[in-house]
Amino acid sequence: MINLRHAFRTLFKTPFVTTVAVISLALGIGTNTAIFSLFDELLLRPLPVTEPERLVDLGAPGTKFGSTSCSQAGECSEVFSYPMFRDLERAQTVFTGLAAHRGFGVNLSYHGQTLNGPGMMVSGSYFPVLGLRPALGRLLTPEDDRAVGTHYVTVLGYSYWETKLGANPSVLNEQIVVNGHSMTIVGVAPRDFDGTTLGSRPRLFVPISMHELMTPGWKGFDNRRSYWAYLFARLKPGVSIEQALRAMNGIYKPIINDIEAPLQEGMSAPTMKRFKAREITITDGRRGQSSLHAETRTPLILLFGITGIVLAIACANIANLLLARAASRSMEMAVRLSLGANRAQLLSQLLAESILLAIIGGAASLIVSRWTLQTISTALPADATGVMHFELRTTVVLFTAAVSLATGLLFGLFPALNSTRPDLVTSIRANAGQIVGAHAAARFRSVLVTAQIALSMALLILAGLFIRSLVNVSHVDLGIRVDNLVAFGLSPELNGYKPSATRALFQRVEEELGAIPGVTGVTASLVPVLGGDNYNNSVAVEGFKRDPDTNADASTSKVGAGYFRTMGVQLLAGREFTAADAAGAPNVAIVNEAFAKKFNLGRNAVGKHMGFDTKKPLNIEIVGLVKNAKYSEVTQEFPPVYVTPYRQDTTVGSINFYVRSSLPTTQLLRAIPPVLKKLDPNLPVEDLKTMKQQVRENVALDRLISVLSAAFAALATVLAAVGLYGVLAYSVALRTKEIGVRMALGADGPRVRGMVLWQVARMTLVGGVIGIAGALALGRAARSLLYGLEGYDPFVVVLASVLLTLVALAAGFIPAYRASRITPMQALRYE
């Protein structure tokens, strides 16, 4: 306690040093805290369930033939067929329960309130396996999942119940319309439970046995070649993952070999061998199942490393400040040692000051971290901010406290050891009247500044690479014209529309939108353009030889009349779709250049035929060839794509509309909702936005990484410049006598300035070379996040070197100028 009081008094005796140190720490720790908050939420935090460490995820990698449908819950290698899930559920003995789930889109209607959002289909074992208790009513049980299509019950998500229904307890046993079907509300999920898929916050949970009713047109419960369900389980006490893996593969492999292998058609012998060799994988499931875990791992680790470097630079600055202050306190330390104080007492006092400084900086860093998180939230798409918590949870605050204590020890240890060294009294006597600066301390300060320059150089180059990558992304040829183009989605089938009514509605929508003043084109697409979704099919093409092991996949969509004209995609040959390409008309398709190249069609694609089965006639005529355009992601290569008219598919129940106008898009965004409300006030409009906004959201991660890395690199450079200035200013103060003698012997101002700036140049050169080497390693690690770059760019290296050199020279100019103004009389007075 005495040490703490003395530490407070000492810190407030030097308010400038304390203020600079606190600000440096607040910036360094605050940025780390903000990134750790995201790191914790996306990569570390377990599900809020009973004993999450006993949860495991099951995967089914390997050769699959048939239909595979995956979602945000994970890769397509992780999904199982429904019959396989039930087989494993009945036969397993190593789990307390095995559960299945699948996300789906819902249109909800409750007491006149309609909205669209995510839902989740879950097996009756889902909530029991998780060990959850309801916030209200009850949760789904195996009894709600016994037979297909007969259990019209649902559990509301807590967030939906609280924000949209006012946490009204009277909702129990009331009816809610889910995708056109009236279902009974039997309960509300517990608070803070947002499902088991990070990035999706379900409005409600329904039995997985209701899949066919929730997804009109889907048939797949009995199909062993239809893979769509994600599985997880809870280990029995005492059972390890390795034991569970052996036991489950003992069940799985006989089913694959004896039941499913005979169902496969057209497989070559090597492919069949690989199919039979498939095995289940079992992995840690405490964090649930989500593709975000893999997608965000590299960017977050990289950003965490960058903020760690910023903190290291801040710590180096504070260590230099404390070394300078320790030199001014050397007489105090010597006197206290002479009066009988032991070194351990002095060390504890000095470390108490350092730790107190770090704690104050850590407290201030919470404000910086909140600002940083708010900035990040504004840069992310609305759907991302809606499912993430940009807040400082208890774990994050504890992390901040731990980092603060660690940094207090880190930057305070060497100054404390140096200022209490055993030879201090002798050194004071030998240098009476001077501020003592040990050679070791001087070398240490120079090493710290050189390290700061190296780290700043590495961050500047890395930031330059990300900015260059973002520039490359912004100049990507999308193949479409995004100006004056607005997009939105409609899912009438989820509101109970029959196919005939859906087709009639789509036609009315096109007509009404086309009548809006200024509208020059209206079209539609089943797959949202640049929406991140992928629909693929294996196709057969006239003149292209295909065997069972040939990759004949192509991306696809169903589109409206005038689609390519409205989207601004150039037609190279043939014709566009028209309203006449409807049900009953000859089947037609339009392909892009990548498709024509993959299937050896060249420029003669028009007139060729394609289909989906080599054993049946190829009954789809290719009537057009268009230039390549981006399909799912801005940064992906142009995939081979074929499109067919949505009017020829009578089962299309959801679609995305695209409206082009000569008017500003702000006017068009206001004009569309009233038109749609007039057609059906109960039909939610999904994701109404401009195509420019869609493109920005598609590259939001690239933009976020570029902005944050540039901001952190700028912060690191400023901190390094402050550190360099401090070291040079202190060095000039120590060399006052030497500089005065040089001036007395004839040295002029330019020569003295050159002497100081040469010291700057040496540290900048050494640090710069080390930083460039470090940047090469960072660039290689970040290669997967860079677009159009290989992790190294000479222009960026040169630009970063010039920028850092200018900053270093600017930081050294004032101390150099002051040195050149020293006179021999000042040196004598200093002596």
How would you describe this protein?
It is a single chain. This protein has 831 residues and is α+β, with helices and mostly antiparallel strands. 50% of the residues lie in helices and 16% in strands. The protein contains 25 helices and 24 strands. The strands form 3 sheets. Strands 15, 16, 17, 18, 19, 20, 21 and 22 form an 8-stranded mixed beta sheet that branches. Strands 4-5-10-7-9-8 form a 6-stranded mixed barrel. β4 (95-110) and β5 (113-122) form a beta hairpin. α2 (15-44) crosses α11 (343-379), α16 runs antiparallel to α19 (665-679) and α23 (749-781) packs antiparallel against α24. The radius of gyration is 34 Å and the shape is globular. The model is unreliable at 430-438 (pLDDT under 50).
Quick synopsis:
This protein is α+β, with helices and mostly antiparallel strands. Helix content is 50%, strand content 16%.
What attributes characterize this protein structure?
831 residues; alpha+beta; eight-stranded mixed β-sheet; six-stranded mixed β-barrel
Head-to-tail CA distance between termini: 40 Å
Radius of gyration: 34 Å
Give the number of DSSP strands. Answer: 24
Mean pLDDT reading: 82
Gross morphology: globular
Uncertain runs are: 430-438
Structural class: alpha+beta
Output the number of helix runs.
25
Percent of residues in beta strands? 15-25%
- Oligomer state equals single chain
**Percent range of helical residues:** 40-55%
> Largest beta sheet, briefly?
8 strands, mixed
